[in-house]
């Protein structure tokens, strides 16, 4: 069973760490990166004398770690008490190919991505990497081979100790004035942030994250980084998780900060995570491709069905795509975020975009999730929705014509956290892909955090109500 697990999950062993230490003999500490329910990499450092326990597969961590809320709370009152009874230990296993140095640290420290397993080496249901692997196992039964990539948006923030964050804006040459307004793909922004961007590029090379492009986004201080397509969706999500860590770590090295918060500023665009997904059959054919000789913009029946499945499951998946209270501030008219399960060819305001591409590269760009979402769970929901749509011959309805203005379209997606969690709880589709145990735990954790968040008195209560009332 241990050998089968290694083959399936690509777990590293003592030969991997020994070869790494031969190349980097000065390393004294190792950061263990543990993906959690929030799309965060929780982290602990172990001393060199403990490396053998990790790579010998005897190091343990509590089952609760990948289920903790954003602040580290465990809302287990909302869960089946048998799920976390006694908070038992699990094995923490190193993922092969993820050992790397940490370029933004001065200390002799390396890092490795880890995964959770039960003590009998069964993949842990609580680990979001395993949740995606569970979804893929169902999808692979249909002979599907998904090829995917992620695009992540984020803000760089000015250094400072003010109470409110401020986006890092470029300075207008020859003045001390800050550049305002739309700054999409500005060359000056690349020059101003060259040192930061080059360190991000170098760290991506060290951590085997296949960065393809970086550009400044519409809002000042906002950036987008794209990664290369891969036929391993778990690996694609590893890339997204590591990219977030790289951006935040390198920003700190440069005296800045970075945030993947979905909507950090009221009057500026929110930050999204777009998923590009195509599917190939066992013979290497793109199943979304239309017949030869059809006009550009023609949508094959299979692609329509996949989009239909994404449209049908979009509302019930919103608790995954928008996992925090702040996430829902993206979804309002004119906010550069989708309004509903719209789709179309070569249209950047729809939720489900078919990019201009060759038939062999035909794909869907899923544009709903925020940058704050968990990549593994988003990927599982997206691929599961496509798969379900094809199985059910789902009809997505009419497409949005090219050039149609959706900037003031009425938002039909859930706009409040509670509503999205309720829709998730009632889903009959998602548990098939995420697993029943994880679906129940996810809903319980999100509901507990939602109740906690909305039960607190914020500064806005004082600013709006205290003096008046």
Give a quick precis of the structure.
This protein is α+β, with helices and mostly antiparallel strands and 469 residues long. It has helices at 2-9, 14-23, 51-55, 128-140, 187-192, 194-206, 233-253, 301-321, 375-392, 417-425, 430-434, 436-454, 459-466; strands at residues 29-35, 41-47, 60-62, 89-94, 100-101, 109-117, 145-157, 211-216, 222-227, 257-259, 273-280, 343-345, 352-354, 364-366.
Mean pLDDT: 92
**Helix/sheet category:** alpha+beta
End-to-end distance: 66 Å
Helices and strands, in order, run as HHEEHEEEEHEHHEEHEEHEEEHHHHH
Provide key terms for this protein.
single chain; alpha+beta; 8-stranded mixed β-sheet; disordered N terminus; 469 residues
Describe this structure in words.
It is a single chain. By secondary structure, this protein is of the alpha+beta class. The chain has helices at residues 2-9, 14-23, 51-55, 128-140, 187-192, 194-206, 233-253, 301-321, 375-392, 417-425, 430-434, 436-454, 459-466, and strands spanning 29-35, 41-47, 60-62, 89-94, 100-101, 109-117, 145-157, 211-216, 222-227, 257-259, 273-280, 343-345, 352-354, 364-366. The strands form two sheets. Strands 7, 8, 9, 10, 11, 12, 13 and 14 form an eight-stranded mixed β-sheet that branches. Strands 1, 2, 3, 4, 5 and 6 form a six-stranded mixed β-sheet that branches. The longest helix has 21 residues, at 233-253.
């Amino acid at each position: 069973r241990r050998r089968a697990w290694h083959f399936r999950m690509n777990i590293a062993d003592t030969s991997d760490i020994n070869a790494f230490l031969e190349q980097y003999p000065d390393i004294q500490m190792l950061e263990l990166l543990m993906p959690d329910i929030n799309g965060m990499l929780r982290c602990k450092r172990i001393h060199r004398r403990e490396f053998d326990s990790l790579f010998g597969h005897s190091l343990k961590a509590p089952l609760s770690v990948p289920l903790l809320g954003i602040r580290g709370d465990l809302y287990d009152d909302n869960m089946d008490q048998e799920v976390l009874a006694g908070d038992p230990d699990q094995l923490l296993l190193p993922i092969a190919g993820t050992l790397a140095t940490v370029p933004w640290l001065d200390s002799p420290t390396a890092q490795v991505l880890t995964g959770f397993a039960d003590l009998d080496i069964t993949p842990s249901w609580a680990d979001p990497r395993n949740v995606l692997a569970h979804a893929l196992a169902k999808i692979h039964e249909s002979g599907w081979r998904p090829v995917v990539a992620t695009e992540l948006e984020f803000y760089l923030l000015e250094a400072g100790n003010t109470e409110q964050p401020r986006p890092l804006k470029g300075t207008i040459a020859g003045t001390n004035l800050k550049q305002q307004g739309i700054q999409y793909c500005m060359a000056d922004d690349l020059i101003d942030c060259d040192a930061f961007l080059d360190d991000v590029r170098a760290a991506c090379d060290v951590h085997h994250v296949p960065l393809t492009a970086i550009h400044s986004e519409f809002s000042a201080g906002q950036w987008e980084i794209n990664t290369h397509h891969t036929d391993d969706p778990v690996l694609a999500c590893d890339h997204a998780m590591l990219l977030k860590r790289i951006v935040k770590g390198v920003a700190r090295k440069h005296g800045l900060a970075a945030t993947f918060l979905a909507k950090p500023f009221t009057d500026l665009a929110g930050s999204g995570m777009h998923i590009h997904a195509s599917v190939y059959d066992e013979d290497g054919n793109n199943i979304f491709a239309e017949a030869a000789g059809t006009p550009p913009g023609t949508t094959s029946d299979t692609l329509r069905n996949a989009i239909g499945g994404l449209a049908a499951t979009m509302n019930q998946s919103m608790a995954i795509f928008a996992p925090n209270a702040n996430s829902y501030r993206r979804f309002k008219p004119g906010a550069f975020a989708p309004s509903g399960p719209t789709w179309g060819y070569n249209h950047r305001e729809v939720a489900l975009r078919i990019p201009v591409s060759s038939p062999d590269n035909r794909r869907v760009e899923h544009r709903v999730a925020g940058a704050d979402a968990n990549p593994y769970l988003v990927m599982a929901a997206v691929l599961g929705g496509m798969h379900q749509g094809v199985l059910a011959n789902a009809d997505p309805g009419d497409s949005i014509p090219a050039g149609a203005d959706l900037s003031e379209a009425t938002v039909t997606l859930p706009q409040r956290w509670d509503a999205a969690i309720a829709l998730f709880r009632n889903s009959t589709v998602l548990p098939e892909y995420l697993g029943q145990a994880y679906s129940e735990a996810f809903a319980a954790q999100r509901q507990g955090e939602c109740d906690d968040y909305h039960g607190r008195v914020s500064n806005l209560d004082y600013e709006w109500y205290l003096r008046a009332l």
